[in-house]
């Protein structure tokens, strides 16, 4: 098992930046593909980005590609999401997730954090 705790959310103006962190504890961090998802009010949870076990391969949703960067530190057991050029549409609760074969769908992740709120004001 792995436990995930997100942090770094907050209120930011459009065009600004935030860096989310996800601290992992439990089973070896580098045995999991890690992903970021988000859920806006009234909408389904959606894929944002994912990163392979050793950080070699990264995938992004079209809506964030070029603005967000996913990374991981397997020594610190931490996942990151650097978010730049934020837009009002990025407002959501952001969740990190871990899975041995994580892809872009929610069902491929076994473990989830509690989420951190990101609010982008105009």
Outline the secondary-structure elements.
Layout: E1 2-7, E2 10-13, E3 18-26, E4 33-39, E5 46-51, E6 58-60, E7 68-73, E8 78-83, E9 92-99, E10 111-112, E11 116-121
Description:
The structure is a single chain. This protein has 122 residues and is mainly beta. It is 0% helix and 52% strand. The protein has no helices and eleven strands. Strands 2, 4, 5, 6, 9, 10 and 11 form a seven-stranded mixed β-sheet that branches. It has a four-stranded antiparallel β-sheet with strand order 1-3-8-7, with no helix packed on it. The chain is globular. The N and C termini lie far apart (40 Å).
| Number of beta strands | 11
- H and E string: EEEEEEEEEEE
From the helix content, strand content and strand pairing, which structural class follows? mainly beta
**Shape field:** globular
Search tags:
122 residues; mainly beta; 7-stranded mixed sheet; 4-stranded antiparallel sheet; 11 strands; globular
Give a brief rundown of this model.
It contains no helices and 11 strands. The chain is mainly β. The radius of gyration is 13 Å and the shape is globular.
């Amino acid at each position: 098992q792995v436990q995930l705790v997100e942090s770094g959310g907050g209120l930011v103006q459009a065009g600004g930046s935030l860096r989310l962190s996800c601290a992992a504890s439990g089973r070896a961090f580098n045995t999991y593909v890690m992903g970021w998802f988000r859920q806006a009010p009234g909408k389904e949870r959606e894929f944002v980005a994912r990163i392979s076990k050793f950080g070699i391969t990264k995938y992004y949703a079209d809506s964030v590609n070029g603005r967000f960067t996913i990374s991981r530190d397997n020594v610190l057991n931490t996942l990151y999401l650097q978010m730049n050029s934020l837009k009002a549409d990025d407002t959501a609760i952001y969740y990190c997730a871990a899975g041995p074969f994580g892809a872009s769908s929610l069902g491929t992740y076994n473990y989830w954090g509690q989420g951190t709120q990101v609010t982008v004001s105009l």
